[in-house]
Write a structure and sequence with these properties.
Elements: H1 2-47, H2 50-84, H3 93-101
Helix pairs in contact: 1-2, 1-3, 2-3
């Protein structure tokens, strides 16, 4: 039974790393898209292309919106894990997901392993 608890903890640690990578990638994409959109808007404004300016601003606004969704994904994952807590016996999922939502870096071990 202890192997099941270790496997569950491993899955949540891998999920934590995956979410951190996704949020990090979203930050990088936000910076790239804002810079590209600002440059495109300047070029379009210089040549007098109103459609190009509009598309550049739409690109900037869309990238900010998508970044906000990626930044809020750890909170959504924490809420889902809280709902799943009753379905996984013996493991406190929120303690494993807690680093996502800022509750610290705590992990649960199997009940048999706790002295």
């Amino acid at each position: 039974m202890e192997g099941l608890f270790q496997l569950t903890n491993l899955e949540f640690q891998l999920a934590r790393i995956f979410v951190q990578l996704v949020v990090g990638g979203a930050i990088a994409l936000l910076a790239i898209n804002v810079a590209r959109g600002a440059f495109s808007a300047q070029v379009a404004n210089t040549i007098g292309n109103a459609v190009g300016v509009s598309q550049a601003w739409a690109n900037i606004i869309t990238s900010i919106f998508l970044f906000a969704i990626a930044a809020l994904s750890p909170i959504v994952i924490g809420a889902i894990a809280d709902g799943m807590r009753t379905y996984v016996e013996g493991t406190d999922l929120i303690s494993n997901i807690a680093p996502f939502v800022g509750y610290g870096d705590t992990y649960v071990t199997a009940p048999e392993a706790v002295p």
